[in-house]
Write a sequence for this structure.
């Protein structure tokens, strides 16, 4: 099985209001924090689809421990 990275800091990304994104829930994606379908055949987890509510900077979780997916809530510090 491929080793997971679990980066312990949020990814700072620019989102576009109304655009739908796929956030990686498994950590296999090479395009973190977004899903690139690398999970297929490795896990039953699926990407989380979300629509940006605003234009601008967002802090997306990369450690996959957040209680507010896809957004970072600081859980990586615990």
């Amino acid at each position: 099985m491929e080793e997971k990275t679990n980066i312990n800091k949020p990814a700072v990304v620019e989102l576009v209001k109304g655009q739908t994104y796929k956030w990686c829930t498994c950590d296999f994606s090479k395009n973190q924090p977004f899903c690139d379908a690398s999970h297929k055949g490795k896990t039953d987890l699926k990407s989380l689809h979300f629509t940006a509510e605003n234009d601008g900077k967002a802090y997306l979780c990369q450690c996959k421990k957040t209680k507010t997916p896809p957004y970072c809530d600081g859980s990586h510090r615990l």
About this structure: The longest strand covers residues 11-15.
